[in-house]
Amino acid sequence: MVETIFYDRKKEIALLREKLSRLHSGEMIVLYGRRRVGKTELAKQFLKTVTCRKLYFYVDVIEPQGILDALARVVQEQLGEQHTFSDFTDFLKFISGKADNGFVLVLDEFQRFVETAPHFITQLQNIWDDELRKKRILVLLVGSSMGMIQKMMNNRAGALYGRASRIKV
């Protein structure tokens, strides 16, 4: 297996580490940019420096139940817990329950939820407003569809408008 060489993202990792170290309430960050510029690798390198509980999930283009099943597998692999999720609210409430002492959640290719499970975005909005923003959690949304990400974040009608800071890579 060839190891990926990681170049020149010290500022971005330092910024993410600083955000995490100063975390007293929820922080949502959108990491976005063109394809093939290192967003995924940046997120993975950042996670290597994290000492609190963390979960990385790559959003595939599959039906909602397939995503929920994949989330259950990732929770088993990364957190060592057996859990099934009836819907995305169930998953987000599960994560909320883990976030009292610090937690990092990375959702890679986040914009795919718009295609595969658009209700996830509004459920994230609701759980963020009701619970997650009050917890010690860093939610890192990674995406390469810049127009779609900007629409969700910059448009007043977007479900996540005003809830996230952005890092363009």
How would you characterize this protein structure?
The protein is of the alpha/beta class and 169 residues long. 45% of the residues lie in helices and 18% in strands. It has 7 helices and 5 strands. The protein has helices spanning 10-21, 39-49, 64-79, 88-98, 112-116, 119-130, 146-154; strands at residues 27-32, 53-58, 103-108, 137-143, 164-168. A 5-stranded parallel β-sheet has the order 2-3-4-1-5, sandwiched between helices. Helix 1 crosses helix 2 (39-49) and helix 4 packs parallel to helix 6 (119-130). The protein is globular and about 40 Å long.
At a glance:
Helix content is 45%, strand content 18%.
